[in-house]
Specification:
By secondary structure, the chain is mostly helical. It contains 10 helices and no strands.
Length: 192
């Protein structure tokens, strides 16, 4: 399944066939099969950005985005790999919902939360996405705040004004503060 996702495919029929092979492989439910399937789906979607996954693949990715999160050790390396990679695939596919990303922001692992923030892709006037972004900007992990600040700068600055960048410019983490100062150096509305 992992290797199938890296194949060079020219038609949606080929992509759908490979997607089906990958999703079937995940049905085994062993950790290695789930890891191979999520890596295969992420590769397939990343290399074929115009391709939209089937509903079955989307549901599988959503399940993988929370794989092992409620287990005794949610920070176990393979479960973290599955969740973070699933979020990368969801981000590339554009299938995330604000509610799903908000739920992921409760993941105990910062790398998974950071990957979930990359999936923020709002509709022009969707208040729910703005609230999810605000959660990311207030996250306890600097890597998540930095990613949320990147998303803010590329998609939300006009809507939210300078407020988030002004607040982040005094962040305890130097990388976050410098990125915020860089955003402030660019034009933004002074309404935030």
């Amino acid at each position: 399944a992992r290797a199938a996702g890296r194949l060079t495919l020219e038609t949606d029929v080929q992509r759908s066939a490979v997607e089906e092979i990958i999703t079937r492989a995940a049905g085994d439910e062993s950790v290695s099969s789930v890891v191979d399937a999520v890596l295969g789906l992420e590769s397939l979607l990343r290399q074929n950005k115009q391709y939209r996954p089937s509903r079955d693949a989307t549901v599988l990715l959503e399940a993988m985005a929370f794989y092992g999160m409620n287990e005794e050790d949610p920070a176990a390396a393979l479960t973290v790999l599955v969740r973070a990679t699933a979020w990368k695939a969801i981000a590339v596919s554009g299938t995330a919902t604000a509610g799903l990303v908000q739920l992921a922001l409760s993941d105990p692992v910062p790398e998974v939360r950071r990957s979930a923030v990359t999936a923020i892709a709002p509709a022009a006037d969707d208040v729910a996405w703005t609230e999810v972004l605000r959660l990311g900007l207030r996250d306890g992990a600097a890597s998540v705040r930095l990613e949320a600040l990147r998303v803010y700068g590329s998609m939300f600055r006009d809507e939210m004004g300078c407020g988030p960048a002004i607040i982040a410019s005094s962040d305890a983490n130097l990388h976050v503060a410098i990125r915020a100062i860089g955003l402030l150096a660019e034009e933004c509305k002074r309404s935030g």
